[in-house]
Amino acid sequence: MEKLWSDLFVLNLPVAEKILRPVLIYFFLVLGLRFAGKRELAQLNPFDLVVLLTLSNTVQNGIIGDDNSVTGAVLGAGSLLVVNYVVVRLLFGHQRLEERIAGDPDVLVDGGRILHDRLRSELVTLPELVSAAHRQGFGSLEEVERAVLEPGETISFIGKKPDVATLQFHEVTSRLDQIVRQVAELAARPPA
Fold first, then answer.
1. What would the pLDDT profile of 132-144 be if each residue is shown by its tens digit?
2. Is residue 182 part of a domain?
């Protein structure tokens, strides 16, 4: 019984090392994912998900070292959470630093025109762009005026605004539809 408690809670590594390992891995992964591109997190396909899951397993031993104790796991996880908290708070107050780390937004659709060179450079396929537009309520890319791959790893869409003639046409057809319904209701009433 004593061995069980020892295996669970006694560290095989110094506490400083248990804290330093996850901190180093955290910054390595932040930089690695930053250089991998915004698309890596914006539009996960099955291959990207496999890479991220495998990546987490690959760095596991770097984080925990030669220690499988609960105490070591709590120290490692706690270190990751504290570092993330500090980084998020630090970036919140320093806009320029956040922009350097997160990168600049990239325009993928401008003036209703798809910028295929930008899609290629960000490794976003046309079907992925269409799928993202559908998730945001657009029927097709023809309805999109502008699409931007944001530093926050999301794609923002701005719809085309109809011109005055189109708005007037829709208003007139809507009123005609109302008149047709009213005439149909009147015609359906029995004579009095």
1. 999 989 999 999 9
2. no
